[in-house]
Amino acid sequence: MAKTILIVDDSASVRQVVGIALKGAGYNVIEGRDGQDALTKLTGQKVHLIISDVNMPNMDGITFVKSVKAMAAYRFTPVIMLTTESQESKKREGQAAGAKAWVVKPFQPAMLLAAVEKLVLP
Questions:
Q1: What is the pLDDT of residue 103?
Q2: Is 36 exposed, middle or buried (0-12, 13-18, 19+ CB in 10 A)?
Q3: With 0-12 CB in 10 A as exposed, 13-18 as middle and 19+ as buried, what is 76?
Q4: Which of 28, 35, 88, 104 is the one with CA 20 to 30 A from 15?
């Protein structure tokens, strides 16, 4: 059965590029426009990995990750931050919130897929 990945980004083009790469690798994809929108998509179904932007309207990625980690069903779901942010302080903030990896935009789809394959839940 295909694994499900949630992509959270306020850029439709980024969601599209990431979605095409993931679907091409055989994953199911759920999309969220921002942290708040993405939380409404987490309804108890199994999500094997989350890829989230940091800078988004309504709810930023760090706040979103903290909210996800507070939900029993998703406490152990790995999170990759996909962002233009490359400062160490932001990376530490993301790790403290529960992010397992940090991929800086612009990204190579192959590099993102390698990170996904390493982290995706069995």
A1: 95
A2: middle
A3: exposed
A4: 88
Report the distance separating Cα 5 and Cα 18, nearest Å.
Answer: 10
Number of H-type helices and E-type strands within the chain? 5, 5
> What was the pLDDT predicted at 1?
82
As a whole number, the mean pLDDT across the chain is: 96
**DSSP-derived 3-state class of residue 40:** helix
Q: Is the pTM of this model over 0.90?
A: yes
The number of folded domains in the chain is 1
Give the chain's residues under pLDDT 50.
none
Where is 89: in which H helix or E strand?
A: helix 88-97
